[in-house]
Amino acid sequence: MSHEQPLRGATVTTTAPAPPAVQPSTELNLTLTLEEKRPLSEGVVELVLKARSTLPPWGPGAHVDLLLGPDLARQYSLCGDPADRRYLRVAVLRETDGRGGSAYVHDELAVGTTLQVRGPRNHFPLVEAPRYQFIAGGIGITPILAMVRAAEAAGADWHLLYGGRSRASMAYLAELASYGDRVRVQPADTDGLLDLASVLGTPREDTAVYCCGPEVLLDAVEQHCASWPAGSLHLERFAPRAVDPDTVDTEFEVEFARSGVTATVPAGVSILDVATAEGVFVVRSCSEGVCGTCETVVLDGEPDHRDSVLGDDDRAEGCFMPCVSRACSDRLVLDL
User: Fold this and answer.
1) Which of 206, 236, 266 is the last residue of a domain?
2) Which Gene3D superfamilies does the annotation name (predicted)?
């Protein structure tokens, strides 16, 4: 669920940074009311959520958790206007092979319902750049839409390549049409797969590339950007990257520094589950290393990063996702 710069596969050893004043995983819990629910395209609905008071600030790329019921929290990118401090907008794709969250939203969630919302958080922020190349696949248009608006408002040079299964399945086409030839819409059923070579074939020093969509698209974009300057590519994943099947978990010790608790993390058991069993509170959501909810800081030890959120800079600063990541050293000290 950043979300994120691309994973580089490097393991870093951290020394103990100064503990943050506030644990990164603590966030505001908001109470919002579903004021509007409307279809955007085949299989996609937009939710307009109204706050009781002024909302916290957020920027393009941010997402929130919707707490839809007991043990049913789902992450959705914000696609509205950050300047609007009374409403949040998200778009939800019905996933036929999902875990029930999208089906609940589409079939049961009714206008007037009060929802608890956690966040916003942002592991996919829009950096300042003179030029942007945006690439979206399917529901990946949701964070990109807010970025397009921000780039346009800033007077930046930008272009969007947007693909989907069919034109009928692609959300926000009417709004995007207002940007003219800055936007290229390419439905797969009529136009084939996205022509990535046409927009990524020549590396550029002045361009930030932002991409969100299915894993096959993200992998292809990474390959096309392999020769681009470091830091050019920014990705957000909706699903975790595959773990090397030859990866072997080993047992290690973890110290939860704030809580004064030390415990053993067995092979096959997550740090997050051990923390819960030991009474150490950590906010959790996806438990797959995608959403960034459980983020904490490594104070000592050598982490084995397995998340799909953090970039190299985040990891160098000690950021860590205990839901999926482990330790290369025998002992890990976390700011929990």
Assistant:
1) 236
2) 3.10.20.30, Nucleotide-binding domain of ferredoxin-NADP reductase (FNR) module (3.40.50.80), Translation factors (2.40.30.10)
Burial class (CB in 10 A: 0-12, 13-18, 19+), 311: buried
pLDDT tens string 28-59: 689 999 999 999 999 999 999 999 999 999 99
Amino acid identity of residue 215, one-letter, is: E
Do the Cβ atoms of 34 and 325 come closer than 8 Å?
no
Give CA angle at 300 (8, 283), nearest 5°. Answer: 75
Answer with the one of 236, 261, 278 that is the final residue of a domain: 236
The residues near 101 (Cβ < 8 Å, ≥ 6 apart) are 66, 68, 72, 74
Whether the model pTM is above 0.85: no
Residue 334 neighbours by CB under 8 Å, 6+ apart? 254, 255, 256, 257, 271, 296, 297, 298, 299, 320, 322
Same domain membership, residue 321 and residue 258: yes
Cβ(308)–Cβ(7) under 8 Å?
yes
